[in-house]
Write a structure and sequence with these properties.
Blueprint (H helix, E strand, L loop, with lengths): L6 H12 L2 H15 L3 H25 L6 H9 L1 H33 L9 E2 L9 E2 L1 H16 L1 H28 L13 H12 L7 H4 L8 H30 L10 H8 L3 H35 L18 H17 L2 H28 L7 H27 L7 H18 L16 H15 L3 H50 L2
Antiparallel strand pairs: 1-2
């Protein structure tokens, strides 16, 4: 693909990819249903976890600058099977994430037109709740954003600059105007649902940070990855975390959590404090933000699909890049059509919980892959050290799951942590003390390895455990479908592809040897 992006483009892509439906829609939903005024703490918790994942992504994106993102990194370090399961979750995240943003777009568009909630959706009485509000506007938005993304990466970048700049302006207005109408009494009670509610909301709000992995997929189109990617990823995410916390706090101080609207929270909040005109400014800004999320999402998600198709885990037709535009059009169409089908039927609350499980699962695997990359090199690492690495990783993951499970069963308890937390700590310490790093990053690396990747594993698993069990049922069903596909189709396709490449390499070697013997 064409190398046309620098760090400035990536920072604005970061704003465009991340700031959208999460902050403008899920903030109200989670403040009302789970966290109350402590929604700002939920954003802090999910922001810390996301930043740990950003560090891991940045090292991979710099060291392996390919369009495949998570899939490429996991395939290199953990093999085809793990990469395929991650790929399935990436596909699921892409489809559901786009569907959720487009559904949110309709909600704020309704607010901009000053119409009643869900008035632009079609009620299907014969369908189950959560799937019975049909949304043709969401489908239209997805199609238009896909058409723009297929034209040119560079043109999409310019459009994203403009839209993101407008969005940042609206966000500054929301923060300043929100605090100017703040009432500290609305922060009482601060923890109406307890600490458990804070982390339950944090797990859902992780969706608000989820777009940053799209930046890693653009490494193949970045002019100078060692310099541009760290600045673009870490810089944009640091600013975004601060923005989210300030916006969440301003909303909580404008309205009591019981009065916050779950569809268009900020617009309704300004209307309630007497700033009716601000309702339209906020709705317009939210629409711009969600539009850029869809645009950048189309770019990053299509590159995921293209790289997966290159491995033949899905039909290679989806890997084709259009010779004129230099963009993966077929992959873009796959994501757009699938997202449109989901957006037409499925409500936001159903989509957001499943997205969070898939996103957190992939981020856990990326952190594990980083530790494997640092401590294992084939042909160099001894069998003894390889076994130690496997044992330490199992203990880190198992203890993290234990911490999460105990939290879910006894949020106010403490006895269980006396066993699980020390196991996590000493497993990480053991990896640091008994193993030597076999590979040092050439350009940019995660600091404090293995502590930061291990902490990333623990926090992501902890947030997964804070989700409701329905999300895991849907996640399990989707994973089972992926496994069936892999066993009957993906496994054979990748084997055939690898065998074909091996034959081509053998033929090339034979030709070179023949030419050397025969001479000029």
């Amino acid at each position: 693909m064409k190398k046309c992006l620098n760090w400035w483009d990536l920072i604005w892509f970061g704003f465009g990819a991340v700031i959208g439906a999460g902050i403008f829609v899920l903030t109200g939903q989670e403040a009302h249903n789970h966290a109350g005024a402590a929604i700002v703490l939920s954003y802090v918790a999910s922001g810390i976890s996301a930043m740990l994942s950003v560090f891991c992504y940045t090292e991979f994106a710099v060291e392996v600058p390919a369009a495949g993102g998570s899939f490429a990194y996991l395939r290199i370090e953990l093999g085809d099977f793990v990469a395929f399961i991650a790929a399935g979750n990436i596909l699921l995240e892409c489809v559901l994430g786009s569907a959720a943003v487009s559904r949110s777009w309709t909600s704020y568009f309704t607010s901009l037109l000053n119409r009643p909630k869900d008035s632009l959706r079609i009620k299907a009485h014969h369908l189950k709740d959560g799937y019975n509000l049909l949304d043709p506007i969401a489908v239209g938005v997805l199609v238009i954003s896909a058409m723009i993304a297929m034209i040119s990466t560079r043109k999409t970048s310019l459009l994203n600059w403009i839209a993101s700049a407008v969005n940042i302006g609206v966000i500054i207005f929301v923060i300043v105007a929100g605090f100017s109408h703040a009432n500290t009494s609305n922060l009482t009670p601060f923890l109406p649902y307890g600490v458990k509610g804070v982390f339950q909301a944090s797990a859902i709000l992780y969706f608000a940070y989820g777009g940053f992995d799209s930046l890693a997929t653009m490494a193949e189109e970045t002019k100078n990855p060692p310099k541009d990617i760290p600045i673009g990823l870490i810089g944009s995410m640091s600013v975004i975390t601060v923005i989210y916390c300030l916006m969440a706090l301003s909303l909580s101080m404008m309205q009591k959590y019981t009065d916050i609207d779950t569809g268009a929270a900020f617009s309704v909040a300004f209307q309630k404090v007497g700033m009716n005109w601000a309702k339209y400014v906020v709705a317009f800004g939210a629409l711009k933000g969600m539009t850029t999320v869809l645009l950048v999402g189309r770019l990053g998600q299509a590159r995921y699909i293209a790289h997966i198709a290159r491995s033949h885990m899905i039909p290679p037709w989806f890997a084709l890049v259009h010779p004129k535009t230099g963009t993966p059009i077929n992959a873009t169409l796959l994501i757009t059509i699938s997202s449109a089908c989901m957006a037409f039927f499925t409500s936001l609350d159903v989509l957001s919980s499943l997205i969070s499980v898939s996103t957190l699962f992939v981020f856990v695997m990326i952190s594990i892959a980083l530790l494997v990359r640092r401590y294992y090199v084939r042909g160099v690492t001894t069998k003894e050290n390889q076994l130690k690495l496997v044992v330490f990783l199992i203990l880190i993951v198992a203890s993290s799951m234990g911490i999460s499970a105990y939290w879910g069963l006894k949020p106010n308890g403490w006895i269980g942590y006396t066993g699980t937390v020390p196991v996590w700590f000493f497993s990480t310490l053991g990896m640091s003390y008994f193993l030597t790093q076999q590979r040092k990053p050439r350009f940019w690396g995660v600091p404090l390895v293995p502590w930061l990747p291990s902490l990333s594993i623990a926090t992501n698993i902890f947030l997964m455990g804070s989700l409701e069990y329905e999300a895991f049922i849907r996640f399990g069903i989707c994973t089972l479908i992926m496994l069936v596909y892999y066993v009957f189709f993906g496994l054979h396709s990748t084997y055939d592809m690898a065998h074909q490449q091996e034959k081509v390499q053998t033929i090339n070697v034979n030709h070179k040897e023949t030419a050397r013997i025969e001479g000029p």
